[in-house]
């Protein structure tokens, strides 16, 4: 059953291929206004039919916005309005790419963060997930965002590595048999590849406690409050409070490790950590927490 659920999460649905619309010029104009964050113009031009149609390459306005290199903060309001009108975050273009794939390639975190969780793990025609695309292009912000999403409770309900949904998602391969870490390393992004590999080695249980760290790593955090805070910022959802807020400051409000870092007493980190499951290279962790 878990394997079937995972397959459903990553398997693209052919019905999500948007049909080519009758007004390509209007679609391009709308996309331009969304990318500029001009909510007034978006509100006047957008219709349910327009936001669900596609251009000749089967790209919807959401995909065109995702493929923009950068957008202002006002774009978020425009995108949320597109969702109200029925924009489909799972829609795929002629190559099977969704808005999440396109945003991940561009490191366009502003848009990727607005998409639903289940729209961020679909495969394209090459079998690649958005995480694989972020790894291949060295898109650090989007890669870290996707990796942090995998710390949530439903994907980390037990101990061990081989039977976690999170672990299986990280080990997914494209049609050429390459994982996200493989793609990062082959593309010359060795630091990002190492970061993904560390994520694959570590395990978080249902209570948000990490295993896979060593006593040596605990010593690093215990000796340096700044290192502890950096550790929390690298894994915000693992150390977040009950309200699901992220980041070091938010983690300080609720998470056990977050409280330790925020209090300036990193020694409190030690009781919350579990050790001895796996060896972690201390040199790599020094890079992670510095």
UniProtKB/TrEMBL annotation:
Keywords of the record: ANK repeat, Repeat
Top-level taxon: Eukaryota
Entry keyword Repeat: yes
A UniProt-annotated Pfam family: Ank_2
Region (Disordered): 1-24
Database matches in SMART domains: ANK
Identification of the protein by name: ANK_REP_REGION domain-containing protein
Organism annotation: Macrostomum lignano
Higher taxonomy: Eukaryota, Metazoa, Spiralia, Lophotrochozoa, Platyhelminthes
